[in-house]
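Morning. Coffee machine broken again, so started the prediction first thing and wrote up yesterday's gels while waiting. Chain of 652 residues, entered below exactly as on the submission form.
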Amino acid sequence: MAKSEYSAQDIQVLEGLEPVRKRPGMYIGSTGSVGLHHLIKEIADNSIDEAIAGHATEVVVTLLDDGGVKVVDDGRGIPVDKHAKTGLSTLETVLTVLHAGGKFGGGGYKVSSGLHGVGSSVVNALSTKLIAEVVKGGELYRIEFEKGVATSALQKVGKTDRPTGTSITFYPDPTIFKETVDFDFDWVVDYLRHQAYLTKGIKTTVIDDKSKKRCGFYFEGGIQSYVRHLNLGKDTVGDKVFYVEKLMNDVMVEVSLQYNDTYNEVVKAFANNVFNPDGGTHLVGFKTAMTRVINDYGRKNGIIKEKEENLSGEDTREGLTAVILVKIPDPQFEGQTKNKLGNTEVRGYVDKVVTEHLSYFFEENPTIAKAVVNKAIIAARARKAARAARDNIIRKGALDGASLPGKLADCATKDRTQAELYIVEGNSAGGSAKEGRNSQFQAILPLRGKVLNVERARLDKMLANQEILNLIKAMGVGIAEQFNIEGLRYERIIIMTDADVDGSHIRTLLMTLFFRHMYPVIEAGHLYAAQPPLFSISYGKKKEYAYTDEERDQIIDRLIEERRAKGTKIDPSDDRIKQAGVTLQRYKGLGEMNAEQLWETTMDPENRVLVQVKVEDAEKADAIFNKLMGTEVELRKNFIQTNAKFVKELDI
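Came back before lunch.
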């Protein structure tokens, strides 16, 4: 094989914004829906930074009816004078030069969510058209771009009533965003709601020109309002929400918290309005302070007895809802995604602020303080009971992966990436599934009745439930602090329940279990819901299956047309079933299908329909599980009344 030449002409030099268009994923993560919406965030974050700096009071995002997005703020306006280094106007510089911005210590922003100065220029590069308008001293300036290249020089358009502000209008390039260029109104609503929570006193608004929908947010309480929102529908420990805001050596520390009667911990950490899902030094400082303050108060007031051991951090945070927000001049994040804050000094600042002010809060609100300590003591006892139950179960081999549950019909393959586990409702369907499956790679675990609602149960109660034990054991991942995703024995965990009300309830109970106690299984994309057919449509010796009402109607319409094409006389007075010449069966349960039908419709990889369970918004998911599975009956009643109109068929 002849060697090819490798010379200077093979080295490609990308100038200006060319690298962004060449490798967009490096700058916005993906070119799918997530990356598309990231464009809005990049522009709107600049407006939010103006608000954080105290120079803007309002941000408006408009989804235009021609597919564009317009972001307007009443901040100082991007400078329009000539930039000394580029020779261009500063406005054109920030929109065409990577790493050009006011966030590198030049005095533009003391605190900002942006780090790299690439946001505006990246959006410009990935848009077929971008229009920037700036108001300075009542004068309106305008410049336009196509795919990151200016199509006109900066022009002074004329006078305006607005004293200052910036407006950016952009149109995402469909050759880059091939999946979709349609923006999701609800996504923008959630984003702007959160920004309003995190920047108290700012008004955020989203407008959809097509649907004429409009939504605005203003929270005087900031993250206090956020905590109240997160606790909506839960019984809280007292009515007061703890809040502190204090400046520590140029770092602003803001913390708000309130306890509720659930067993779940919801603690959200932010740095410069950027959510840090993996926490960081601010979260570590917060947790340390919480554990210390609660133990100190408990001992000082005789609630924790002298001979009793200290409460653990896990105990003190059961039922806690908290938001931590730090604003830092020079944030150091671990990784490009800003998942984790790394500034070491922040740990001590947050620890000191929370220790001092939460201690004051407890002294001033002894009823709340005693309830919090007592809740933590009960959590500690439950944790010890759960540990004892787990140790006992382990001694008996009930969680030993080598001793799989008797009900499990395991698969033959030892290759985990090929294996899948069907969690099947009822022994009858379980029997058909075992008979109809491909035993090489499909395992079947039938469940008896409805599993425990873990939204209302601690771990000790869960471990006393045989059906949950069987599932934990079959999956091989363990539970609680012993949970380990590496032990998962199957690539796909598939929930297969009847297409009726009871089946939906069982599926929801199982999803609650996974969401609350095995979240990494969902996060890694291993959890699925099988979609058994709703109808079988028989004609002659043939049979087709429909998984939705729409699919049923399409099949029947097609068969009617086929009969017409053959010259078959069709009586228009007949209903559509007779016109199609078919027998229609509505399945109420998996048990109505024999093994062959179950394989053909629901288990055969060539034909089956699987829905992957994803959590795009953990906050929303938490609220939904609390609403559907929690203790508040009124919430469920309202949910049912609101959504009843969408139910087409109800099995009673």
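The first helix runs from residue 18 to 22. Going to sketch it on the whiteboard this afternoon.
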